Structure formats: C-alpha cells, structure tokens
Amino acid sequence: MPGKPLQGWFTGVWDRVCAKVNKAVVFLDGPSAEVLHWCGGAARLFKAGAVNVKEFSSFESAKDDQPKAVFVLSSVLKGQAMTVIRDIITASQFQYCVVVCSVNHYTHQTVHGAQESESREVFDQFEEKMCEWMGNMNYTAEVLYEPVSFAPICPGLFTTPAYSSMFPLTPSDMDSIRQMRIARGEAVGDDSMKIDFSHLSTDLQIWIKMLVSNLSSLFEGLNVREDCYAVGPFSRVIASELANLNSAKNRRKTAANKASILFVDRSLDMVGPCGHQTDSLADKVITLLPRLQGHTVDVSINMTSLLSKGAQLYPQLICPGTLSHADSASQALLNSFVTLKQKECLMDVNRHLVEVATQEKLLVSLPTKPGRLGAQQLEGHLKLFREPDSTRAFVQHAGVLQLAMAAVQTLNHPLYPHTEELLGLEKTLMQNAGDQDCPTALHQLTQLLQEREESKDRGGRTRRQRCSLEDVLALLVFVYSLLGEEHVGTAEEEGRLRDYLVNPSDEEELKETIIHAILSQATLSPELQSLVGENTTEDRIRSVINDVFIKLKGLGRARTGLQQFGSVFTPGSVTQVASYRPLVRQLMEQIFHPDKPDVPDVEHLSSGLTDLLKSGFRMFMSVSKPRPSDHPLLMVYVVGGVTCQEVRLIREAVAAAKTETEVVVGSTRLLKPSDVVHQVLCQNNLFPDLGL
Questions:
Q1: What are phi and psi of 107, to 5 degrees?
Q2: Nearest-CA neighbor of 129 among 100, 101, 97?
Q3: Which domain holds residue 430?
Q4: Partners of 663 in the beta sheet?
Q5: 207 shares a domain with 141
Q6: Can you tell me the distance from the alpha carbon of 277 to that of 481, in angstroms, rounded to the nearest whole number?
Q7: Are both 17 and 33 inside the same structural domain?
Q8: Is residue 692 part of a domain?
Q9: How far, in Å, are 548, 555, 690 from residue 174 at the CA level?
Q10: Helix 328-339 and helix 398-411: axis angle, to 10°?
Q11: What is the 3-state secondary structure (H, E, C) of 325-345?
Q12: Are residues 330 and 400 in contact, defined by beta-carbon separation less than 8 angstroms?
C-alpha cells in the first residue's frame, strides 16, 4: 500500500470542499482551520473562488453583497455550533448556505437519540433551520459530510486536531467510574482495568464515535478492510467501536485491499513526552518555540531579523513563519526535522541553505576547517537573504528559510540550556532508582522545590531558579510513569523500586512544599492557573494537590495487567546504566520480530461472527494468531499524542526488521512536556465538553 494514495486522500477531501466555496464567505472552526493549514492553507480556498475566509465565531458576519456562506466544522451540529451558525446567518444577508461537517449523519443520529440508519433526516432538518434563519424557505441550504479531520504533517505522519485533547482514561479515572457505577447500584467486576463503552459519559461516547467514523472514512477512501488491534483499555474501547461499526460492514465486504490499525494508549508510557531525552530537533522546536495561535502542532517563527530595518521596528505587524509549506523542498526539510537525529537534521538544514544560496548566486562563506555545525553558521547563511537585492530569493525560498530560522531560534533559545539541565535531572532520577543509599525520587524533587526559592547573592542580584514548579510537575509525571508498579527482576528489586517512589513521608513533604510554592507566587503561570483555577485559597490548593497525587498514583498503575510491556525501565547494574525503553519501540520490535512470537498485550478486536469463528478454530488448529504485521499497511494511532522522537523510533524499528509492511503513524496531536502536564493533571478526561 504506497504512501502517496494516503497523502492524496488527505488533500483530496479538501478538493470536494473547494468545489463548494466559489463566491462564498468561508467560516472555519479551529480544528478545521488547522487541518487546512497542513493541506494548502487559505490560499487554496481563495484560488477556488472564495471571497473571504473568517473565524467561526458569533462575532463574525458577511457584507450585505455577499449572499453565499460555507461553514467548515469539526463538531456536531448541536448546542454551541448550532448557536454560532444561527448568529452568523441572522447577522448577514445569505441566500445560499453550505455546511461541511466532519461528523457524519450516523453519529448525529446517535446524538439525537435516533436509530442508526441511512436516513439523512437530521441533516435535512438542519437545512430547514438554516432556511428559517436566512428568512426565506425558498433559499438554498446544504449539509454535507466530509472527513476534514486529518492533518498530514509529513509522509507517514498525521494528526487529528479535532481530537487533540482526547486522552486515555487512567486507573484513577477508572476507579471513579467504578465508584459511580456502585453508587447507581450496578454490579462491577473484579477487573479494575477493564472498561466498556457503555460505562463512559455521553460526550465521551460521542467523541469516540466521531473519531472511529472519520477513520472508517479514511479506510473507505483507501479501499481497505482493516483489522483492529489495541494496547491498553481505552484503546480497546476505540478499536472495538471501529471493528463493530455498522456503517463499515458493507465497505469491508467489497474492499480490495487489507490493512491493520493498532491503537495505543498514551497513558501507558508518559516518560518520553514529558522528558527531555530526545535527539529530535522537531521535538525541541515544538517544546521551545511558541505555538502558532489556535494550533496544536505548528509553531510561530519570528522572521523579522531577515526583513528591513523598518519592518523590525513593528514586529507585531509581521506574520510569523511556520513549519507547514506546500513546496517540495520545504516538505523534504520538515521530514528531516521529524525523522533524523538532531546532528543529521542540522546538516540537512545547512545543505538546503547552501543549495538555495548557490542557486540564487549569493556569496556563500564556507568554513575552512570542519567543525561542529551550530546556530552561528546557519545564521550566517540566512543573513545572505536579508540583502536588498535578495528579495526575490527570499520569496522564492521562504519555506526553507522559515524552517532554518526555526532551527536557529531553537538552538539560541534562552531556555535551551535549561532543557539540558532537566535532562541531567531525569538521568539522575533514573540512575538513583532502586539504590538504597540514594534519597527517594520524591525527596529529591522536594529538594528541587526548596532550592527554587529566590535568594540574593553577594551582588544583590536574583539567582536564577534551577527548577520551576511546572518543571517539578512534569518530573513527577516522568518518575511515576517510569517506575510505577513495575515488574522488573526479583521481588527484592521490585520492593526497592516501590519504596523508592512512594515513601509516604516523602510524599507528604512534597505535597506541603508544592502547596507552599503555589501560595508564595504573586501571579500564577497559565499552566498553574489551569491546574488550580481562579480560587487560590489554601484549602482549594490543598485539595487540588491531593487530587494531583491521586492521578499520579493512577498513572503509576497504568501498565498493570500488561504481560509483556509491563516495564519501560531497565535498572542499572555494575555493568550497565539504568535506561528508558520506549513502549512504541518495544511494540514494533515484537510485532515485526522474525520469529513472530506471541504478543499477548496486543489484542485483536473481532469485527463480526466470521472473525469469532476463525478465532475459535485457531484454538483447535495450529494456525497462527492474527498480527498487526499481516497486511501491507499498518497504521499506528497513539491516543493522547505522540512525539517526533517516537515516530523516528518506530521507523527505525520497522527498517531494522526489513519488512515490506508500510507503517503510518497517526495521533491526536504532537506533544511537548507542558501538554502532558495539562492532559494528565489538569483536564477532565472523563467528562469532555463537546459544547452540546
């Protein structure tokens, strides 16, 4: 299954949207706008005849001489979305309205409590409402389904912005579900790590249905029948919903190709995303540079240093640079950011700059002696495009220049040395794990917090804090996910690890230190505000921190029940240092192992009676179990976010296996450490707000 059809399908969805936008004002919600950003941008709509592109907001409207509107939405046509559409229509003079929605009519039927069928009744009723809002039932209204949900970042990697805040339920969330079911008088089983779709909140059920219907549309576009696999309890729910999706049954009967999709719970391994043990320049760019407003992947790159002195006086008027560009050179360079190690990526950035400068006949100064390639040399090349006679070259190669500037600004970022310091702390925590002569992880983090109190040196200057409170929260997620309730070696080793992590006295001391640190802050950072809220009384903060540790302990139990992937940590010994073993790499190595060993933690979800019968026959016959590697295409979808480092590790493991199976990585978003803290400790994953 070649990759080009997949990339073509992602952008082809927008061809059908563009066919509707001629002479229209286009309104896009946030996730749809982000997807369009990676599929050609607003220029694509203008080229198709759109007269304006606006934010999907009740405060927007069209001019009186603009009679046509197209709304591109990623949400259900109910509640908040319906209110905004009504507000925009009633404030304008439209005679023709088109809604392109990435939620199909089957899911809308579920939202409205109707039986799933081929009927478009829900869409037809919404078309009538739009005619009412336009003030004339003879005007034209259309509601169409198009899965504008997939943002192709680079070949073999996509995200789904509409589900960027979706995160797997952790054991503490599952404990809450059990308590709610017990309170309702329901019978609960002994397996606390098992959840069913029916146990979830209504909004979470709808959200999952939205995701699986989009994925089903993707497989329909590729003309494939998919086998569904899962690692983790939340992924199992999603995979089961996709496997048993009624609307996909006819498609699977006639599909010419086969593929596998493997869902993986992000909560099983939070070490990589919240740590700094990455050799990926893309991860460092995403971590250090500010996110492009309203986006979950792309960043804002300051390009004023390459502009005229007049432009530099008003930087707020200059549009930021981005990572997403349509030209092939920029896309190839972005692929290097994602798939290469930092040193190799910087060499590729340098090569691209030298090539475009030579092509434009600019005077390139090459170093006389070979040395380490850094920001200074790249900056020297970039300055060539700042000259007045280099304007055409700047415009011609703007994409490559923006990516190169992203690399330079990342390497020169004032917090770049701090990330190296945090890496050292993470390594120290790992090396000390299980060593009885070393203080516990929580004791070490308590000391870090105590050291961060501002003090004056002899010169009267404020000493830089070694570690912020936000850093400590990320380190807490790091150690609980790394060590958790592991099964590593002997019972004595396991006991030492558990004592190392959860010494009660150390936990209470750390709680009190965190509470004091929050109370002592004059103003809270956005991260801490999302954690604590507006009420910053001591009782409120104490309650929040107690809840934080409940969530952390739940995260530490996330791999409970896994037989093969119960640990991501290799303890140190006399002959080797302690190390982190990413779950995704372990998964790929076992799935593509030449001996095809059993992988008990990878569960195959049957899609019907035929598959169940096949599974039954395998119990009595020497027939191998289905594996994700059985088909030409394997899609690995990480629920809760993925890092570029993990994408590279997956590709390296697949390349080492010398398999003919193509592996595509998808996820809800690309992660940085602050995202992890928010997803695990701040947001309510049990009850997402879909605005219904």
A1: -65, -40
A2: 97
A3: 416-454+463-570
A4: 634
A5: no
A6: 15
A7: yes
A8: no
A9: 15, 11, 21
A10: 30
A11: CCCHHHHHHHHHHHHCCHHHH
A12: yes
Distance of CA 109 to the CA centre of its chain: 28
**Which amino acid, residue 499?**
D
Q: What is the pTM of this model?
A: 0.90
> Which residues have a Cβ under 8 Å from the Cβ of 438 and sit 6 or more positions away?
432
Decide: 400 and 352 in contact? Cβ < 8 Å.
yes
Q: Can you give the pLDDT at residue 490?
A: 40
261, β-bridge pairs: 228, 635
Question: What DSSP string describes 106-163?
Answer: HHHHHHTTPPP-S--HHHHHHHHHHHHHHT-TTSEEEEEE--TT-EEEETTEEE-GGG
Look-up of token digits 């030492």:
496
- The pLDDT > 90 percentage for the chain reads 47
Q: What is the largest CA-CA distance in the chain?
A: 82
Mean pLDDT score of the chain, rounded to an integer?
85
Q: Is 214 contained in some domain?
A: yes
pLDDT at residue 190, as a whole number: 66
**Confidence class for position 121, pLDDT limits 50, 70, 90:** confident
Does residue 31 contact residue 149 with C-beta atoms inside 8 Å?
yes
CA distances in angstroms from 580 to 269, 293, 434, listed in the order given: 10, 34, 14
Shared domain for 243 and 332, answered yes or no, is no
- The encoded tokens of residue 650 equal 């997956």
Greatest mean pLDDT range, 285-294, 481-490, 527-536: 285-294
Nearest C-alpha neighbor of 501 from the set 556, 427, 577 = 556
| Residue 38 contacts residue 153 (beta carbons within 8 Å) | yes
Domain count, the chain: 4
CA atoms within 13 A on the CB side of 258: 10
Q: Which residues contact 256 (CB under 8 A, 6 or more apart)?
A: 223, 224
Q: Tell me, yes or no, whether 310 and 250 share the same domain.
A: no
Counted residue by residue, the chain has a size of 692
Nearest CA to 297 out of 478, 162, 147 is that of: 162
Instruction: State the Cα angle at 477 between 474 and 478, rounded to 5°.
Output: 85
Q: Output the six-digit token pair for 279.
A: 């050799």
| CA–CA gap between residue 331 and residue 665 (Å, rounded) | 17
User: What pLDDT sits at residue 495?
Assistant: 45
- Classified as helix, coil or strand, 28 is strand
Is there a domain that residue 226 lies in?
A: yes
Bridge partners (DSSP) listed for residue 299: 291
User: Nearest CA to 287 among 580, 644, 585?
Assistant: 644
Neighbour-count burial of 606, counting CB atoms closer than 10 A to its CB (0-12 exposed, 13-18 middle, 19+ buried): middle
Do 224 and 294 lie in one domain? The reply is no
Q: Does residue 553 sit in the same domain as residue 433?
A: yes
Residues 15 and 143 both lie in one domain: yes
Question: Taking a C-beta distance cutoff of 8 angstroms, is the pair 257, 1 a contact?
Answer: yes
Q: Which residues contact 14 (CB under 8 A, 6 or more apart)?
A: 36, 39, 40, 44, 148
Q: Which two tokens stand for residue 571?
A: 């303890």
Name the pLDDT band for 458 (thresholds 50, 70, 90): very low
CA angle 26, 28, 31 (to 5 degrees): 160
Domain membership flag for residue 256: yes
- Shared domain for 110 and 250, answered yes or no, is no
